[in-house]
Amino acid sequence: MALHVAPSFEQLEKLSHTRDADLVGRRLIDPRSNRGRGAQSNRASRFDTQSREPVDDGWGQVEDLKPFETIEHIERARSIITRNDSPDIGFDRSINAYRGCEHGCPYCFARPSHNYLGLSAGIDFERDIYVKVNAAELLRRELSDKRYRPKPIAMGTNTDPYQPAERKHKLTRSILEVMLETRHPVTITTKNALVVRDLDLLQELASHNLVRVALSITSMDHRLSRTLEPRASTPEKRLEALRLMSEAGVPTTVMAAPMIPAINDMELERILDAAAAQGALDASVVLLRLPGEVREIFREWLLRHFPDRVSHVMNLVRDTRGGKDYNAKFGERMVGEGAYAQLLRQRLERARTRYGLDKQVPALRTDLFTPPQREDRQLQLF
After folding, report:
1. Other residues' Cβ atoms within 10 Å of the Cβ of residue 90
2. Within a domain: 159
3. 285 near 348, Cβ under 8 Å?
4. Rounded Cα gap, residues 136 and 122, in angstroms
5. Are the CB atoms for 335 and 345 separated by under 8 Å?
6. For residue 297, what are the contacts with CB-CB under 8 A and spacing of at least 6?
7. Which of 34, 160, 177, 379 has its CA 20 to 30 Å from the CA of residue 346?
8. DSSP characters for 60-94?
9. Is 102 a residue whose pLDDT tops 60?
10. Does residue 373 lie within any of the structural domains?
11. In which band, very low, low, confident or very high, does the pLDDT at 32 lie, cut at 50, 70 and 90?
């Protein structure tokens, strides 16, 4: 029988006089039922009117929690290219072939999107994976629209395109095949070394200046990486992927993301140094941000793994967000504010210069684009 367990009194006592005192008495899922997952709870969607929580009342009648195995849901999407007008990011369109992400990062800003499916932003987000099996078919249709004008399409902006489900379904590979066929520019962000499986396609795209690949590396520490990103590739595998792609002529960058105060921020220079040695051309940093349900999921992760640092970490986070846990304002949400955020930016710029991660890379080409021929079109007159 899998039970809920609470942190020890000694761990919680340190929180009793802080802004995070509401964590006292928080019930977390027993680690024995939660192996390989980042979230420590599975709270109901914000849209649910009721919530249920199994509790052991001593009578042995509590229903056993089902094993947290991954459940794949086959989905036929209606569209595949998502548009945005955010001034904080350098693209206006993206593709996500999967909903949910098995990597299980407790800080993932995409978690609240699972609420719209009636699922939890907690373990459901990393357990219930929706697979858009018609992704390549939809992409071909949308690119063939006479009104379409090419600009780089970003992959990996919400969920990782090379998460474990990709090994079986190969949706990302099929999308890249369409990109290569139509000579369409694409950027990829991933935490998974599985990206090298598609090196043949990436190399061909790179020969036409149609691709950039960013590897996100959060920590070089094995234990920290395992708890922060339970089912992502190890730091060594990601560095190896950087090397293999760089040697094949694929332009690569490293993202030290997210930087978490008092958890992994001291590793910034180490991450960039290692990535530069493997051929990365550029580097960037994303400061931790905690929108919606992510705040509670991340705090519970802290309570599980770093109970003595909960208050310290969250106070530093608030220092970068104007005293709040999160600031969604455009222009500030990605970089933060205050002395800590400014110092992080200064460290990034100095490290980029020191390790040669400030190389000028030409913009991806859009002039080679050729719309695909759709098989469902009516025959044209000669």
Report:
1. 9
2. yes
3. yes
4. 29
5. yes
6. 38, 39, 40, 41, 106, 111, 121, 122
7. 160
8. S-SPPPPP---EEEEE--S--EEE---TTSS-SEE
9. yes
10. no
11. confident
Assess if residue 95 is contained within a domain: yes
Amino acid 189 reads: T
Question: Predicted confidence band at 66 (pLDDT cuts at 50, 70, 90)?
Answer: low
Domain span including residue 278: 18-48+66-354
* Alpha carbons 108 and 41: distance in angstroms, whole number: 15
Question: Edge-to-edge, what's the strand order for the sheet holding 71-75?
Answer: 71-75, 128-132, 98-99
Structural domains counted in the chain: 1
Beta bridge partners of 214: 189, 253
- What pLDDT score was predicted for residue 382? 47
Residue in the block written with tokens 């969250």 = 314
Distance between CA 183 and CA 153 in Å, rounded?
12
Query: Percent of the chain, pLDDT > 70?
Result: 87
Q: Which of 14-28, 217-231, 295-309 has the lowest mean pLDDT?
A: 14-28
CATH number of the domain to which 306 belongs: 3.80.30.30
- With CA atoms as reference, report the closest residue to 82 among 74, 93, 70: 93
Find the length of the chain. 382
Q: Within a domain: residue 349?
A: yes
H-state helical runs in the chain: 9-13, 123-127, 135-143, 165-169, 171-182, 199-207, 222-228, 235-247, 268-277, 294-305, 310-319, 338-354
The two tokens of residue 224 are: 């920290």
